[in-house]
Write a structure and sequence with these properties.
about 325 residues, Rossmann fold, two-stranded parallel sheet, 7-stranded parallel β-sheet, 13 helices, 9 strands, alpha/beta
């Protein structure tokens, strides 16, 4: 089966191409930027380019996108062109080429305002039944692309799975408050409790989705590390997550103290990946328990794939505050 990967010069696209090549699978990477993992340079909005690349393809993983860090630097039209129009071109050409499965990389950012409860309310439990309330052009266009995917399944029977992937980038946080208050490793270890996934686990989820799409038909799945928290923890997580963490992992406070780390002062949402584990057979390996194992051994808690892909940033320039503009 030839697999087409869009966005092959990006974090996830490169991760997919590395894994596919390492296992000897027939894969073609496309991107607007050249890279060691891009076989053909071109835009997903260029129908002739996409049509040529779709020949002989039996599965598509559509990871190319404009991301949240581009919101501060790109006009809305660019998001519409890439995230909506580009997805439409790929869906139409995949259908014309008799592609057997189409996997769309979406984002938990589509949930938008649903992720932050009102002050005094418990943390939000986020699963696929929560209604999205996009709060920027990124979320709006990714949700619109999801709806296009669903339409192509419903009207044309194209097998499509949508993966709402949580953050996996290695760069420092886009919040200036988090950057100033926590080391990058500390912040990302905290996030694995409720809103982050290692890129190796994200790649595994996408490849499982390719295999399962034909049998499932259409589905949306949250792709995030398995949380140790439960719904009963939600009120306390909003006001004192350190106490909740210590209850689930009694050794965590001492291990954190040995590195000078600390827990966030509050957690506002928890992603539930149960549906992806049940329906895709996905079992993420790089969770918070692995973080603690790494702290005991002095190793990096990230996967070898995360280290190999490394930091890419999202722009061709470096901004005053880092690889992309930050918000306060």
């Amino acid at each position: 089966m030839t697999l087409l990967v869009t966005g092959s010069a990006g974090h996830l696209g490169e991760g997919l191409m590395r894994q596919l090549r390492a296992t000897g699978r027939d894969a073609v990477g496309i991107d607007i930027k050249p890279s060691a993992f891009t076989d053909h340079v071109g835009s997903i909005t260029d129908r002739d380019f996409v049509r040529r690349r779709m020949k002989g393809v039996r599965a598509v993983v559509h990871a190319a996108t404009l991301h949240k860090p581009h919101v501060a630097t790109h006009p809305h039209q660019d998001f519409i062109d890439t995230n909506i129009s580009g997805t439409l071109v790929l869906l139409e050409e995949a259908l014309a080429a008799n592609v057997e499965s189409f996997v769309f990389t979406s984002t938990t950012s589509t949930f938008g305002a649903a992720l932050t409860p009102a002050m005094g309310e418990p943390a939000a439990w986020i699963n696929e039944d929560v209604a999205p309330i996009p709060k920027n052009i990124y979320g709006v266009t990714k949700l619109s692309a999801e709806q296009l995917c669903e339409l192509f399944h419903r009207k044309r029977r194209l097998p499509v799975l949508v993966l709402r992937t949580s953050r996996f980038f290695p760069e420092p946080d886009d919040s200036i408050d988090v950057r100033n208050g926590f080391s990058t490793a500390n912040a990302q270890a905290n996030e694995l409790l409720y809103r982050r996934v290692d890129i190796a686990d994200a790649v595994d989820a996408h490849l499982l989705a390719v295999e399962r799409a034909k049998a499932i038909g259409f589905g949306r799945y949250i792709i995030s590390s398995t949380t140790p928290f439960t719904r009963e923890d939600l009120p306390e997580l909003r006001r004192d997550p350190a106490t909740v963490l210590a209850r689930h992992f009694p050794e965590a406070p001492a291990l954190y103290a040995s590195r000078g780390w600390r827990m966030f002062p509050q957690i506002d949402r928890v992603y539930d990946n149960a549906r992806a584990r049940e329906q895709l057979g996905w079992q993420p390996k790089y969770d918070f328990a692995r973080v603690l194992d790494a702290l005991r051994s002095g190793e990096d808690f990230r996967s070898p794939l995360a280290e190999a892909v490394g930091s890419k940033g999202y722009h061709d320039v470096v901004f005053e505050d880092g690889p992309y503009p930050v918000v306060s």
